[in-house]
Amino acid sequence: MDAIVKMLEKHQPFFEKISRNIYLQAIKDGFLGCMPIVLTSSIFLLIATLPGVVGITLPQPLIDWCNKLYNFTMGVMGIMVAGTTAKNFTASMNRRMPAGKVLNDGSTMVAAQCSMLLLAVTQFTTKFNGSELSVFDCTSMGTRGLFSAYIAAFITVWVYKFCVSRDLTIKLPKEVPGAIAQNFRDIIPFGGAVIICGIIDVVVRNLMGVPFSELLIKLLSPLFTAAETYPGLILIQAATAFFWFIGVHGPSIVQPGIDPIRLANQAENLQVLLAGGHPAHSLTFNMSLVGEFGGTGATFIVPLLLILFMKSKQLKAVGKASIVPVAFAVNEPLLFGAPMILNPYMLIPFVAAGCVNVSVAKFFIDNVGMNGFSFVVPWATPAPIGIFITTNFQLIALVFVAIIILLDAIIYLPFLKAYDKLLCDQEAERAAELGLESDGAAAIAANAPAPAVEQTTASVETTAAAAGSEPVADQPEPAADASAKKDVDGLKVLVLCAGAGTSAMLANAIKEGAAQTGENIASSAGAYGQHTAIMDQYDVIVLAPQVRSYYNDMKADTDRLGIKLLAPRGKEYIDLTRDPAGAIKWLRENLD
Prior knowledge:
The chain is mainly alpha-helical and about 600 residues long. The protein contains 26 helices and six strands. Mean pLDDT is about 80; it is low at about 440-485.
C-alpha cells in the first residue's frame, strides 16, 4: 500500500497541472457563477409541484407564476453560462497576454452569449391571430445548450486574443474618452466572434440538418449512454474520489465534462415526473448526494464510526470535530484531520464507498421503483434529506439511504480499525518514551508531532511543490516576537475554497478570534472563481487546501493588486479553523 502512495506522490504534479487547465477552470468557474440560477429556480419549482404530493392544491395563477420564474431562469441557463464561462476564460487569458494588452471581459461575455444563440437556437416564423411572428425555439437556451455555451465562450475569447494581440482594432484619437474608445476597439473582435459562430451554424445546419447544439448531443450520445451504465457511473465516481485522495480537487477535473448531461438528464427526469411517469435517469446533477454522501469519499458515517468504535484519542477527537460539518457535506476536517488524504489505510474505502453507493442507486432506480433525481437541492443539504426531497419524497428513498449508510459503514470499518491500531500503538509509544501511562497519551498527542501518515501528507505537498515548474511558495517562518509587532487592525480577509463551505469555517474562526482579541478584522468566505470581481476589496486572501493548486495563478493577480496571498497546508488549515485566537496570531505572523 505504501508503494501505491509513493507512486501517487510521484504523479501528483501532473494531476495538479490538469486541475489548473484554463479550459476546465473556465467551465467550472463559469458554471459556479450561475449556481444561483439553478438553486433559485428550483425553489420556485418546488413551490409549484411539491404541495400536490401531500394533497394540497395551489391556485393555478400561483403555479403559473412559479413556472414562469423557473422557465425564465433555468430556461436560459445556457445563455448565462456562455457569458460567465467567457468572463472567467478571459481572466485566465489576460494573465497570458503581452504587457499592455488586455481583453475586455465585459465585451467577451456579451459576445459569447450572442455567439451561443447563433450556435444553439433556431429562429422561424409562424402566424398568430393573422399576424406573422418571428419565434425562437427555446429548447437549447437552457441546460441542453451548455456544450454550445462552452464552445461559444472559447471561440470568442480566442478571437479577441488574436485581434488584440495583433492590434486588429479600431483606434480613436487619445482625446476620446476611454469608455467610448474601448467600445470601438471591441467592434472587430466582437464581429469576428459572432461571424465565425454564425458560419459554423450555417455549415452544420446545411450539412447535418440540425443546430450545432443538437449535433454535439447526437455525436456524444454514445458517450453519455456509456456514462449512465454501472461501469460508467463507477468510473466517474472513482475518478472523483481518486483525485481528491491525492490532494487534487476531484470534482474540478471530472464534473465540468459531464455537467451538461447531468443537468439535461435531471431536467428530463423532472418533465417525466410532472407527466406522471417514472424518472429513470441515474446520471443527474444531484447524484453527487449519493456518490459524495457526506462529501467526496462518501464519508457521512465515518465521524460516527470514529466516535463509537475507535480507541485512538486522535480519531475520536477528529470524529467529534467533524460530525457536524460532514453532515452538511463539508468533510475537509475529516480529510485533513484524520487524515484521509494520501493515507494508505484509506485509499480503498475512500474510492470504493462512493462507487458502491452509485451502483446501489442505479439498481434502485432501474429495478425497485425509486425515482431518478428530479429536483435540484443545494450541495450543502444533508444528504439523507436531499435524497428524500429530490426523489419526490418517496419512502423507498429512505430505505435506500439506510442501506447505503450500512454499506458505507461495512466498507470503512475494517480499514478504520487497522488505522486506529496504528495510532494507538504510536500513542502508547510516545507515552512510554515520556515515562507516562498509556491513558495519558491523549494529552501527549495534542502537543506531539503528527503521526507518520500525517507527516507523509505534508511531505507529499512539499514534494509536489518542488516537482512543479512553478512551485507553490512556502510561507516564511516568522520571528518569535513577530505577532506582537505586526498590526492587523482594519484588515479585510477573503477565504476561498471550492464551494464556500470549507472557507466559511476559517472565515468564521477569524471573526470569532477578532472578537476575542478586540481586533478590527473583517473576514468573508467565497468560492474560487467567483472572487475576481471582489478581490480588490480585500487586504489578504487565503486559499483553502483544496484550491491550493491555483496558488501561482492567484499570485499573479494578488501581486498586481498589492494583496497578501496565504495558502496554509491541510492540517494547518483545519487547526486554524478550530483555534480562533490562533487564526489571528497566524495572520499577524504572515503579514509582511
